[in-house]
């Protein structure tokens, strides 16, 4: 669903910023968690399940 269909035009920037914030949190947290899983299991197979 496009952001402009969710409400007033004045709120589009706020909603886009919130979406980008949550995407950035995932991008920041993902690699360290993948590294921990890789070290714990000794391979990248389990990392694929996490991704």
Key phrases:
51 residues; mainly alpha; 71% helix; 0% strand; elongated
Which bin fits the share of residues in helices? Answer: over 70%
Uncertain spans: none
> What is the first-to-last residue Cα distance?
23 Å
Instruction: Report the structural category.
Output: mainly alpha
Give the oligomeric state of the chains in this entry, treating copies of one chain as homo and distinct chains as hetero. single chain
Would you write up a description of this structure?
The chain is mainly alpha-helical and 51 residues long. It has one domain. It contains 2 helices and no strands. It has helices spanning 12-41, 45-50. The radius of gyration is 17 Å and the shape is elongated.
Summary?
This protein has 51 residues and is mainly alpha-helical.
Sequence-ordered SSE layout with sheet pairings:
Elements: H1 12-41, H2 45-50
């Amino acid at each position: 669903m496009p952001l402009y269909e969710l409400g007033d035009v004045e709120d589009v920037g706020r909603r886009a910023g919130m979406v980008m914030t949550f995407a950035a949190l995932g991008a920041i947290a993902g690699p360290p968690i993948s590294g921990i899983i890789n070290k714990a299991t000794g391979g990248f197979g389990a990392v694929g399940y996490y991704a």
